[in-house]
Write a sequence for this structure.
């Protein structure tokens, strides 16, 4: 039976796959819920979104997604608290960023109501899939891509907006070791680095594979001119603690304006931790590692939350970071996670009830 | 009936769409032939390619092509001469470049035989679709993309290689007006600009749209640091004639190593035209336009062949180029097209009989 929830049409799946899933041993993003949101852009406008059974996407071989990389996405997490209430974290910021990304890739922007109502409806329909276990959550993946046809290198005339969800465990298992990149780069000045564009990620895979072969988990991206500035870490923004000061690079057209990043800055400032948003030179981090003032490094992003770094490689040398009792990373991770999961007050007004 | 051609399995379509096509009025890349080549990468290896009816591609919503932009492509043209023989132009170079692109995006490289035998078989099966009309050809689009599933930002474990074909007319109608880019850029040092990666094209669309709104057809890309050097023109390499010298930028990790470009260089040198492969400064082109030594500019690429430029915009000023009787662009275009279509001798050994 089709019915309307929040004015959104819902077509329920005939059966559920939920009993096949081991909720105690969830990988990241590998199993998908019973439904998805689907919304099509045709004849110059977005049609009404629908919740439909999770199902294959059928595309002509000439669909521009295959040829010209018009695709953007977002990453969010939904949490369920002890009262079975469902929470999102700053979802309107994800909506806004999706449109910023779309605009840069010459893709049509979505109406806020289609995104927000569609998202809420989907989460209500697939509510049973939201894990409660600590460290687990429902990873929510809104994405838009070019479904319109043609080999001419120009924007497509049709698009699909989909939200799919995956109950997920941790993104990284434990602390990570990173490699400061000296050769490759992820984004250009005047390029698309600030957008969550699919192509930005494909470009990172090969250099990341090379780093993994050398024993690292992740590349730390530097500027593409001289590789002198520390910019970002894969799907995370990066924070560096020198003595008691927490430093992160300013956002720019090369760096994603991470929602976790700006929340961490606010939490740290609220706690009285001195925060500097400024260019971070590779050489100052190396110096700080040598003279002992480098106390912590961590990545921050929705998927990996706050991901502490155990050490870094640079110019064939490895530098390790100290194990601090009272470290910022643990404090900030607990604080943001408690807000996200409704275990603590939310003085910032970030939590969003579904 | 299935049968083998060149050891490739062929599954013929039940009906043909060829009678729906107006071969006298072909757009670029808008109608597709009856068949396509399909080849799947699974369990760590490429399975045997097959020619199958042109048909939709069915993908899970979590297929990595939608999320992380793992897609690369090639563009080639097939021509039919007066004896109904079919010709390609330097196809092994396209094969090699496809693998160079794949490697940079952490995608599996193809065996040469799968590409070449698959391509030939497809063209034999769809031979009737190759236009004979001057200026028309069968545009051939090999592409590879990530079909494997997962929201983890890492390379997919499954891929599809497809070749689809579109009988096509001219890419641009007439001479083009270009805008020298001062803000946006298409590629980073250490990035993926030298690869025919889908994401590189999506990133160009928005700045190109802005240029089109200002009355230009195409952006001329400059370096991402100071926008001082002229690098490339959308889906074409760029050539500039100052006095009698033909100049083109050297290829690099930011610039695609165009097959048309290197063929044009060889034809020009063979003709005794002085050619310089070197960095081209924006200011020298502007100076040359002012003092009259700038004689010609043109783009070179498979889709657009040799595409003469009538003028360029820079810093809100327009500069127009002279109309020369004996211009290089016309000579080079006729020379390369005659070789491609078997209307002239091919001293270079570029033509490839299917
Ligand atoms: C390149 C990049 N940087 C940073 C982030 C972190 O952003 P957020 O905290 O909004 O998830 C992400 C992941 O979303 C990312 O893909
Ligand atoms: C970015 C770019 N530059 C240059 C070219 C020209 O290359 P080719 O002559 O091999 O077609 C193309 C098109 O293929 C291209 O996409």
């Amino acid at each position: 039976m089709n019915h309307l929830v929040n004015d959104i049409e819902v077509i329920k799946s005939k059966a559920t796959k939920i009993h096949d899933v081991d909720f105690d041993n969830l990988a990241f993003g590998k199993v998908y819920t019973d439904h998805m949101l689907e919304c099509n852009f045709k004849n110059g406008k977005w049609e009404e979104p629908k919740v439909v059974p999770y199902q294959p996407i059928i595309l002509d071989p000439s669909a521009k997604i295959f040829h010209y990389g018009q695709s953007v996405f977002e990453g969010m997490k939904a949490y369920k608290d002890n009262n079975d209430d469902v929470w999102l974290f700053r979802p309107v910021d994800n909506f806004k960023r999706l449109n910023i990304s779309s605009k840069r890739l010459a893709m049509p922007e979505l109406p806020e109501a289609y995104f927000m109502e569609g998202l809420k409806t989907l989460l209500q329909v697939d509510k049973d899939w939201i894990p409660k276990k600590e460290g687990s959550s429902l990873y929510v993946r809104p994405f838009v891509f070019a479904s319109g046809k043609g080999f001419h290198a120009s924007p497509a005339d049709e698009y699909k907006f989909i939200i799919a969800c995956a109950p997920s465990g941790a993104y990284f298992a434990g602390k990570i070791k990173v490699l400061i990149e000296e050769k490759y780069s992820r984004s250009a000045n005047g390029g698309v680095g600030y957008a969550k564009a699919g192509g930005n990620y494909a470009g990172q895979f090969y250099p990341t594979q090379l780093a993994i072969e050398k024993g690292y988990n992740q590349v730390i991206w530097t500027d593409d001119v001289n590789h002198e500035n520390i910019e970002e870490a894969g799907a995370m923004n990066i924070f560096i603690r020198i003595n008691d000061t927490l430093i992160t690079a300013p956002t720019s057209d090369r760096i994603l304006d991470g929602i976790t990043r700006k929340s961490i800055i606010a939490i740290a400032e609220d706690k009285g931790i001195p925060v500097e948003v400024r260019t971070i030179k590779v050489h100052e981090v190396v110096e700080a590692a040598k003279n002992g003032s480098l106390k912590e490094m961590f990545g921050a992003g929705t998927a990996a939350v706050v991901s502490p770094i155990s050490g870094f490689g640079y110019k064939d040398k490895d530098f390790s970071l100290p194990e601090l009792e009272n470290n910022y990373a643990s404090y900030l991770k607990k604080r943001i996670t408690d807000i996200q999961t409704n275990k603590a007050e939310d003085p910032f007004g970030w939590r969003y009830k579904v």
Helices of chain B lie at 65-68, 91-104, 112-125, 198-213, 259-270, 282-291, 328-340. Residues A 75, 196, 232, 235-237, 256, 258-261, 301-302 surround pyridoxal-5'-phosphate (ligand 1) (CB under 6 Å).
